[in-house]
Design goal:
There is one protein chain. α5 crosses α10, α9 packs antiparallel against α10 and α10 packs across α11. The radius of gyration is 19 Å and the shape is globular. It contains 18 helices and two strands. Helix content is about 75%, strand content about 0%. The chain starts with a helix and ends in a 5-residue tail after the last helix. The N terminus is likely disordered. A two-stranded antiparallel sheet has the order 1-2. With about 350 residues, it is an all-alpha fold.
């Protein structure tokens, strides 16, 4: 099954959330069947390219979040399965597009699709997956869920454009950086959880609580990923360690290190990030500065704050195994060190 490897990967991670995988296993098997069925096409390159990325695994956190939120909110129907599959298609489409824009070499530990099939076909298959996602949303007959995920798709695109425009900006403020990652990453976590809540028919207060959980969880994950690019290993990341640095991305660990560096390092940062004139030794030096200035720990501390906010958002729901497993997921977000 497509999701088997993903579930095993998630369960083996530090701060294991294997209970969440177990509690949602039957639902996620249904999501898996929908994904496999709906990525098919009479145009052979479409399922081949889509499966290259989807079958590579990943943690499947976003669709898992949709299903878990729906069940925590008391859902007894299967509308959340179609929404979860739609969420995974939206996420996969954005990954295909991002890898083309960033020129990434690896995705989920495999060669990026655009290096095999070309940039044009990767972008177009991403468009196909977006279309499939909206078909699945319409089938649930929930205008509110459609609104939530359509808005998320728009916000993600805006976030990606914002990041592209400011990606090499060494003067980017922490506030603006958080605004960018809220749009490009955390929004889909928030929408995934909120859509699950809406499918359960809960009141506005509880659907907002689950949206808040997803938003804080997404911010925690992105900040931890930013830190791992400098403090992790390729096996942990599913991409090459240092990719953010080599692409000149101004992520929070980098921005904090620049702010904490002295004038002697200013030229190094301007050359390596501002002008992207890098040597083989530059990543090692950048990593030493990011760790030495405390920028790495500061980024992980902020990720931990958002994880705590995520857990606090669940207080409206009864203390049960599902809620506890979602709290563990927030802890897992900031425990992924190599």
């Amino acid at each position: 099954m497509v999701l088997d490897a993903a579930a095993a990967t998630l369960a083996r991670q530090p701060g294991s959330v294997d209970r969440l995988v177990r509690l949602t296993a039957a639902d996620m098997a249904g999501v898996d069947r929908l994904i496999t069925d709906r990525m098919q096409s009479d145009v052979p390159v479409i399922p081949a390219l889509a499966e290259h990325l989807i079958a590579a695994g990943g943690k499947r956190l976003r669709p898992l979040l949709t299903v878990a939120a729906a069940r925590l909110a008391g859902s007894e129907n299967d509308h959340c399965l179609k929404l979860a599959a739609a969420v995974e298609f939206i996420h996969t489409a954005t990954l295909l597009h991002d890898d083309v824009v960033d020129g990434s070499q690896l995705r989920r530990g495999k060669v990026a699709a655009h290096l095999i099939w070309g940039a044009a076909q990767s972008v177009l298959v991403g468009d196909f997956l977006f279309a499939r996602a909206f078909e699945l949303m319409v089938e649930t007959d929930s205008m509110r869920a459609l609104q939530i995920l359509a808005q998320a798709s728009r916000v993600i695109a805006e976030g990606e454009v914002m990041q592209l425009m400011r990606s090499h900006d060494l003067n980017l403020s922490q506030a603006l950086y958080l605004e960018i990652i809220q749009a490009k990453t955390a929004e889909l976590f928030a929408a995934a959880a909120e859509a699950g809540a809406v499918s359960a028919g809960v009141d506005a207060e509880r659907s907002k609580a689950l949206r808040d959980y997803g938003m804080s969880l997404g911010l925690a994950f992105q900040l931890a990923d930013d830190a791992l690019d400098y403090g992790g290993a390729t096996e942990t990341l599913g991409k090459n360690a240092g990719d953010d640095f080599r692409e000149g991305k101004a992520t929070l660990p980098l921005l904090l290190a620049i702010a904490r560096s002295g004038p002697r390092e200013a030229e190094f940062w301007e050359r390596a990030i501002g002008r992207r004139e890098q040597t083989e030794a530059d990543f090692r030096r950048a990593r030493e500065l990011i760790i030495g200035t405390g920028a790495l720990d500061a980024t992980l501390d902020l990720a931990a704050e958002y994880a705590d906010k995520a857990k606090a958002a669940l207080a409206l729901f009864p203390a049960n195994e599902l809620r506890e497993s979602l709290e563990s997921l927030a802890d897992f977000a900031v425990s992924r060190r190599a």
